[in-house]
Specification:
The protein is an alpha/beta fold and about 250 residues long. The chain has a single domain (about 5-240), classed as Alpha-Beta Complex (Spore Coat Polysaccharide Biosynthesis Protein SpsA, Chain A). Helices cover about 35% and strands about 25% of the residues. The chain contains 7 helices and 13 strands. Strands 5-4-1-6-10-7-13 form a 7-stranded mixed beta sheet, with helices on both faces. Strands 2-3 form a two-stranded antiparallel sheet. Strand 4 (about 50-60), helix 2 (about 65-75) and strand 5 (about 80-85) form a beta-alpha-beta unit. Helix 5 packs across helix 6. It is globular, with a radius of gyration of 18 Å.
């Protein structure tokens, strides 16, 4: 059944990408092997039989560009969009208000992660249905150092049981909606008890619901800098090509 709504946050400022002053060159809109990054991420979900809705979250300053560039085709592709907020949690809250009432599950996937694989998405969705909340993550395999303000090593951290959170992250709708309502009521400057909230599963954890983990792959990179585009292109080119479907946004 089509019971998942998928939210793709793409409202960031792309400061580390080096082009925040030009909305058409933010990382979500840059062409990756002939298609904008955000659309490559949307492609991971929009044709899945278990997905009923894809929602892209766009910064207010990008909305005119987004509508001019993609508006005429969004209906054909079945993709919704909303205006985001000042922070990620504001953007997700705006998207939650647009989720299809018939959806039972909500998945959130960074629009800047276009290299996720179907197998990992399947596992996250299936585990979320069993446990209520599941994320993709990868074990830390590097040595971790805590650094002082003077750029000196304070401590080498034990990396055992430490994982790097990725997306997609999937949740039973009621769990996520209630967790965000609690977060909005209790948060101050995007923090709970002084701790910054940096991903959506953290909001669910803070509400007291356990989150299960699926071990992901190192190729599910998040595009942050222009150098990441080269790596993403190499990853996509190394994968077997799918059917030659018509894509209205192809260059």
């Amino acid at each position: 059944m089509s019971d998942f709504s998928v939210i793709l946050p793409a409202a960031g400022q792309s400061r580390r990408f080096g082009s925040a002053g030009n909305s058409s060159q933010k990382k979500a809109f840059v062409s990756l092997d002939g298609r904008p990054v955000w659309l490559r991420s949307a492609d991971l979900f929009r044709d899945r039989l278990d997905v009923r809705q894809v929602i892209v979250v766009i910064a207010r300053e990008d909305s005119d560009y987004f509508v001019d560039r993609f508006g005429s085709d969004l209906a054909v592709l079945g993709i919704d969009w909303v205006i985001g907020g000042a922070e990620r949690h504001d953007s997700i809250a705006n998207a939650l208000a647009k989720v299809d009432v018939k959806a039972k599950w909500i998945a959130i996937h960074d629009a800047a992660r276009p290299c996720a694989v179907e197998k990992d998405i399947d596992q996250v969705f299936n585990l979320a249905k069993k446990t209520g909340a599941a994320i993709l993550a990868q074990p830390v395999n590097a040595t971790l150092k805590r650094i002082s303000a003077e750029q000196r090593v304070e401590k080498t951290l034990d990396r055992r049981n430490l994982w790097l959170a990725q997306t997609p992250q999937a949740f039973e709708k009621t769990i996520l909606v209630q967790a965000y309502a609690k977060f909005v009521a209790q948060a101050k400057d995007g923090c709970l008890a002084g701790i910054p909230i940096t991903d959506d599963s953290q909001v669910v954890e803070a509400a007291g619901h356990p989150v299960s983990v699926v071990s992901g792959t190192g190729t599910n990179i998040k595009i942050t800098t222009s150098e990441d585009m080269k790596l993403a292109q190499a990853i996509l080119k190394a994968r077997p090509k799918g059917p030659n479907l018509f894509h209205p946004f192809a260059d």
